[in-house]
């Protein structure tokens, strides 16, 4: 059997309606117990296994008993031998039918037993001694089964088509009601439709951006809505989870660009705030220490003048001779020199540093 096709959100709903819950039939209890834990070629375990016949009956002893009775009737042995053969035949018949007095329900299953085609009892896992007219008819899985339901193009409050993947977990709590009120195939289709309708109703009450952030609260609401729909069939919803929410590609790109722009704007505002704080603190410190600020300014000018003076190709230009004199005096006081250095004659023309051109 070919594998089930993979389904992507946004495809037609018919493609998404693949069968997830299956049932099977076996002729006796032993094969039914094995089938309950044997996956099909697609890896699906059956939810319900129908037992085709009554409890195990050994047909070999029945055949032997019939052969003995035929031998006695045809050959008419002596009375003593005749009674012995009939006793053996009766024991063989009893031995062949002894399985009708026992019902074995495997671990992880419910057992449904009927009497004259009417549901009589529900058994938990174990071995039971019953009357021979009570027959095991179904084995129902007690495990939880996971149901995947992709919902395509669910409209949001503003009309945006949203694709939502939902994973629901079901558990059978009333096996008799589940078996006799709905078939497994019908419940599979019903669960698909119920999840589709519930998810669409949930998405219709929110915007597309809110749909992207669905979480535990929305899952709880969806679980309650599904529980009301599956409860009449003896099925309980254990958990619901949103595995994927997808918006149209152009809308997703637009939202990403807006969010990225908002992040950049917040970063610029944070940097501007930090710069404003730095300048405000600096302004307060300069107002509190004006002499220190003037000292830093003069020292900076002096350092620049010294660096330029060390360069023979540079010509130092100051605004006035008094500015140079004050700078040198300040440097002498800071360095702790013996006296002020002689200021150069500002009236003398500057000496050229250019070499004469050779002809």
Summarize the SSE layout with pairings.
Blueprint: H1 13-16, E1 23-26, H2 29-35, E2 48-51, H3 59-75, H4 79-97, E3 102-105, E4 109-114, E5 119-123, E6 126-129, E7 135-141, E8 145-155, E9 161-172, H5 175-181, H6 184-204, H7 208-212, H8 216-230, E10 235-246, H9 249-288, H10 290-309, H11 321-335
Parallel strand pairs: 1-2
Antiparallel strand pairs: 2-7, 3-6, 4-5, 4-7, 8-9, 9-10
Helix pairs in contact: 3-4, 6-8, 10-11
In short:
With 359 residues, the chain is an alpha+beta fold.
Description of the structure:
There is one protein chain. The protein has 359 residues and is α+β, with helices and mostly antiparallel strands. The chain contains eleven helices and ten strands. The chain has helices at residues 13-16, 29-35, 59-75, 79-97, 175-181, 184-204, 208-212, 216-230, 249-288, 290-309, 321-335; strands at 23-26, 48-51, 102-105, 109-114, 119-123, 126-129, 135-141, 145-155, 161-172, 235-246. A five-stranded mixed beta sheet has the order 1-2-7-4-5, with helices on both faces. It has a three-stranded antiparallel beta sheet with strand order 8-9-10. Strand 4 and strand 5 (119-123) form a beta hairpin. Helix 3 runs antiparallel to helix 4 (79-97). The longest helix has 40 residues, at 249-288. It is rod-shaped, with a radius of gyration of 48 Å. 19% of the residues are buried. Mean pLDDT is 79; it is low at 1-16 and 336-359.
